[in-house]
């Protein structure tokens, strides 16, 4: 019986491959850096003159127009859906209790306010259906 050469294990082969790839990538990086250093020459550029229309575009991009919103306002404000009013959540309010007050399902409240969960916190602003408008709408249906 001849002794066969034992093949290295899976992890040993994996380690060997990783080391080989790492050494090849290091060589390629070194060659790339060397060619970059040889090809780099200092370039000095002067900014092109700006015309009056381009100045206005630059000011708009910076947000320095008087009629624009402040730059520090990074969070986009929610737009009020039609037929709704703003409601501030009280200390003992839950999504279910608010839904009961306005005769709407909690899921409809979540959808209307684009919430990510059914949890609300005191002081949070929610959009709820306008009770006055819905009463007016129902009375119009009765008279028509």
UniProtKB/TrEMBL annotation:
Composition-biased stretches (Basic and acidic residues): 53-80
InterPro entries, sorted: LysM
Domain LysM: 85-128
Region (Disordered): 1-90
Pfam families linked to this entry: LysM
Superkingdom: Eukaryota
PROSITE patterns attached to this UniProt entry: LYSM (PS51782)
Record's protein name: Nuclear receptor coactivator 7-like
Native source species: Cyprinus carpio (Common carp)
């Amino acid at each position: 019986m001849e002794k066969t050469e034992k093949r290295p294990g899976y992890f040993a082969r994996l380690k060997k491959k990783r080391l080989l790839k790492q050494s090849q990538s290091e060589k390629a990086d070194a060659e790339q850096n060397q060619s970059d250093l040889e090809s780099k020459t200092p370039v000095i550029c002067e900014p092109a003159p700006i015309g009056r229309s381009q100045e206005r575009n630059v000011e708009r991009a910076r947000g320095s127009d008087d009629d624009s919103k402040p730059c520090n306002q990074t969070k986009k404000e929610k737009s009020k859906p039609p037929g709704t009013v703003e409601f501030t959540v009280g200390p003992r309010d839950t999504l279910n209790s608010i839904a009961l007050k306005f005769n709407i399902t909690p899921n409809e409240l979540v959808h209307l306010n684009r919430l990510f969960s059914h949890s609300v916190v005191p002081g949070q602003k929610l959009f709820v259906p306008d009770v006055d408008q819905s009463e007016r709408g129902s009375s119009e249906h009765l008279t028509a």
